[in-house]
Amino acid sequence: MMLLGVYVEREQLLVRLLRCMLTSEQRFTNYIWRVCVLSFLLSAVFSTDASCAILTPIIVKSWDTQDRARSELETILLAVATSANIGSVCTVFGNTQMALLAAHTQDVMQGRLDMRSCFMYLLPAALVGLLLNIGFLVLHQWIKTRRIEKSKLISEPSHSEQEMAGLTKTN
Q1: N or C end of the chain: which has fewer CB within 10 A?
Q2: What is the mean pLDDT of residues 69-98?
Q3: pLDDT at residue number 61
Q4: pLDDT over 90 for what percent of the chain?
Q5: How far apart are CA 121 and CA 90, in angstroms?
Q6: How many CB atoms lie under 10 A from the CB of residue 4?
Q7: Is 87 within 8 Å of 40 (Cβ atoms)?
Q8: Angle of helix 13-21 relative to helix 48-65, nearest 10 degrees?
Q9: What is the Cα–Cα distance from 13 to 164, expressed in whole angstroms?
């Protein structure tokens, strides 16, 4: 897994892709769904751990160079982790639980849990999970932004409060 991460970083494969996909001009909702889809697809192809280990440093560097809002980083990292977990369900080698199930289904059932049947049956559920995940991540960021705005309003007294306290002069 670490060798794969070093290879991908050395070849700058994902960096080039992220430069095209994630730009600083994008609104947060557009930015977050792209991160989610990329993490979802990578975890289905590689594994949850590999996709998180590869994507996290690259996305943090990309986010840092784009001068995005500091409050977005937590939600973006949550998007990488949660989307990788959801996407890994689509394939037999996406996570260890699926590999374990595939290894033992032949003993219990007539057939076998192969790549095609796993993908066919679990992709629709994973896509629904991905959409719900994106919705909850956008909601998470919206609530967090509202809290930050509310705390700024509370910490900064208004002009009328200052006038009542006698701190400013009125004409």
Answers
A1: C
A2: 86
A3: 82
A4: 22
A5: 8
A6: 14
A7: yes
A8: 60
A9: 60
User: Letter for the amino acid at 126?
Assistant: A
| Block residue for tokens 């309003």 | 153
Amino acid at 70: R
Question: What is the pLDDT of the chain when averaged over all its residues?
Answer: 78
Please name the amino acid found at residue 20. Answer: C
Listed as own residue / partner, the contacts of 61-70 with beta carbons closer than 8 Å and 24 or more positions apart are 61/15, 62/15, 62/18, 62/19, 62/22, 66/22, 66/23, 66/24, 67/24, 68/24, 68/31, 69/28
164 vs 136, more confident: 136
Q: Are 4 and 45 in contact (CB under 8 A)?
A: no
CA dihedral 63, 64, 68, 70 (to 10 degrees): 110
Please give the average per-residue pLDDT across 14-35, as a whole number: 75
Helix, strand, coil percentages for the chain (3-state, nearest 5): 80, 0, 20
Q: What is the mean pLDDT of residues 37-52?
A: 86
- Of the CA atoms within 13 Å of residue 37, those in its CB half-sphere come to 10
* Dihedral over alpha carbons 126, 129, 135, 141 (to 10 degrees): -90
Q: Can you tell me the distance from the alpha carbon of 126 to that of 47, in angstroms, rounded to the nearest whole number?
A: 15
Taking a C-beta distance cutoff of 8 angstroms, is the pair 129, 141 a contact? no
Checking if the pLDDT of 47 tops 70, the result is yes
Rounded average pLDDT over 96-124: 73
